[in-house]
Amino acid sequence: MTTLNALICLAIALRLALFVKRRYRPWISVLAYLLTVACGSQTLLALLHVGNPTHWSVLLANAVLAVLVFSANGNLAELFKSSAAHSRLSSWLLHQKPVKEKA
Fold this sequence. Notes:
Blueprint: H1 2-17, H2 26-47, H3 56-71, H4 76-80, H5 88-93
């Protein structure tokens, strides 16, 4: 289970690290940096066999985080972006298509 968690964390860290931003938002950049470092360190700790085995709840939380990050193509701002009716995150959780904002 630790190896699977390490792979999920590696995928999250790589997706966030390879995202090319179009607009700079300081708090989103800090959040992306912290998530990249946290997930990258989990991968390194698992490879070095340091720390405790991964609990299933941590694996589940990381899997959900990976799905959210990949559904937003690595753009954390998209997860918190609000539109007229729902944010992208709430639309994804409700299995609805997000409402497009009119330009």
